[in-house]
């Protein structure tokens, strides 16, 4: 019973922490650190929520969550008698865990299919350009720049973007998209998209996804700044915004119109970096969340 209470308290703490993090102002000063914290909160919340229900469900075994589940799967009888509440908790826990796993796998499969279809389409309608080596050029008058993530990743720009941007601005945009590919931001966003699909009515889940999308863009901006001027990247974003950029295809990573001004303000007026002590404190909290929740599945309190 104690294990179930502790896991339920941890799930509640993760939910409150996520709600507070959606309005935190420090995240833009350390987007990578904030992304790690978001991921840790998501993992801990999922394991704690399902673990609390399963811990109560297997309480009659008196041997912990994981051992109790293994004993149940092996057909062993519990030490204490079952009652309707324990049975209901088991059903709810298994249902919640199944839903989370299924929506995650489903979101991954749909993203892979969308990217595979888009690669086939790009082979037909895009071309190489000596002026932008290693980049596929799409013959389209609207401005577009995005990446197709995966093992065979590609960076794509449209003919409209080539005409719209100066050479320095184009370099900045390509460095940004290359950062998405290098840091596999698609994998960062996937669990949040899956959770949004599982809980479409939850405001905190919707805001969490939006926050992580913005943080991913800021993290790519930070890496791009190593190779280009922040002002050039900011002006490129403004050009995309004023030109009415073409929507990014499903499953790809590209410019989001509703993120542009926040990114431009950050590029032109960068705030002070997050102190190292706070950065390591957040990382320590993230590690604690990720490790403590599985530990509670193993031990018996």
Write the layout of secondary structure elements.
Elements: H1 2-21, H2 31-57, H3 65-73, H4 84-125, E1 126-128, E2 135-138, E3 145-148, E4 154-158, H5 159-164, H6 167-182, H7 185-198, H8 203-224, H9 230-243, E5 253-254, H10 260-268, H11 276-298
Parallel strand pairs: 2-4
Antiparallel strand pairs: 1-2, 3-4, 3-5
Task: Note down, in words, how this protein is organized.
It is built from eleven helices and five strands. The chain has 301 residues and is mainly α. It folds into two domains: 1-82 and 276-301, no CATH class; 121-270, no CATH class. The chain has a five-stranded mixed beta sheet with strand order 1-2-4-3-5, sandwiched between helices. Strand 1 (126-128) and strand 2 (135-138) form a beta hairpin. It is elongated. One of its GO terms (molecular function) is metal ion binding. Belongs to the peptidase M48 family. It comes from Nonomuraea glycinis.
